[in-house]
Amino acid sequence: MGIRRLFLVSLVVSGMAWTLSVAAQSNDVQPSHPAIQYSRPSNDSVSVLLRRPDGISRLTSEGPSGYLRSILNALDVPVSSQIMVFSKGSVQSAIIGANNPRALYFNDSVVVGWVRGGFVEIAAQDPEQGTVFYRTHSGLLGGLSIERDNTCLSCHNSHRTAGVPGMIEPMGQTRPLERRWGGWYVTGNLGTIQHFGNVDVAKLTSGDAPPATTTLMSLEKTFDTRGYLAPYSDIAALMVFEHQMQMTNLLTLLGWETRVAVHDKRSVAASSAFRDRVAAVVDYMLFVDEAPIASRIQGTSGFAANFSERGPRDSKGGSLRQLDLSTRLLRHPCSYMIYSAQFEKLPPEAKAAVYERLWTILSGKEKDVRYKHLSAADRRAVLEILRETKSDLPKYFIA
């Protein structure tokens, strides 16, 4: 393999490096541990839907995409979140390709996948157990069933998911934009930013010069989009997805390790491994080492507006869901996942430690150079938003 090809392969896989380092620190918590019991009945949004008397019966089939739109509506997942991947990394890989990509849709706790000619896959976040996987089945005489599918764990419980049942994040927020999105469709205006989107990974590792960046505002002329709910793979949605998938895995890992330690009567606060895990969560939450955006980004599906409308706001209109997309992902650099049920359900010891670390940084007590990206105005704005929108903040946040 030539030097150029080795270099390009490293670009494709380098987004996994941070995940690998996190997994290497893992205590290898087993899903069957009494403090976890991953296979017990879950309490994610899909299981809540299935427990409703009319949960399945009210879902309807519509055209080539079948029950997809109805499932999205039932789970409150916006169509504008659609992103498209054509690299073969799914149980349905046999039918996935550049002319038949896999569409992903998401909100803060659910990811729904669909490929034309295939079935609907769902990954839903249980607040305590991590990501729970489902697949749909259509009966020969009509009707739909949704069943839990633990076979997904063969890929979704590995070093690529931080060692817990979780999502395989596509690139990671620290990876430079010019080295992202090989094997993914990207629609939108990225200004002068060069990237690997809209290019097959095989071409990136062939040893030839990287293909020139292709700008697409729509996918309608790229392949036959009939059956898909939208002709977009919105760049804003893709960047939010990248952040959220890793944040989700980190919160799951912190929760699992803390619950196991408490169950096994091991000291949590005195553990350096616990402190390191908390620091990793908070650093990611505050976008430490986030790759900068060199040119203003604009999506095509309306996702940015839809995403921003969903979050709580303070009395000045400030929200942690406001996108920046000119120099960084969020206007106020603190993850909106702090409002998630997953964060809310962290063990008390873990949540207290996360809040303490957040306060140390946001109050300015922490002087480490790692936090230089947080200006005084950034810290003040995040604190003001949290004080008005998070009811469980420790008293020292308010003082």
Q: How do the helices and strands follow one another from N- to C-terminus?
A: HHHHEEEEEEHHHHHHHHH
The structure class reads alpha+beta
Biggest sheet: strands, sense, closure?
A: 6 strands, antiparallel
Q: Whole-Å distance between the termini?
A: 60 Å
Helix content: 25-40%
Low-confidence stretches: 1-27
Please report the total strand number as a whole number: 6
In percent terms, what proportion of residues is strand? 5-15%
Structural domain count: 1
Round the Cα radius of gyration to an integer and report it.
Answer: 21 Å
Please, what is the average pLDDT? 89
Order the strands across the largest sheet as they lie in space.
1-2-3-4-5-6
Shape: globular
Q: Helix segment count?
A: 13
Describe the structure.
By secondary structure, this protein is α+β, with helices and mostly antiparallel strands. It has one domain. Helices cover 32% and strands 9% of the residues. Strands 1-2-3-4-5-6 form a six-stranded antiparallel beta sheet, with helices on both faces. α7 runs antiparallel to α8 and α8 packs across α11. The longest helix has 29 residues.
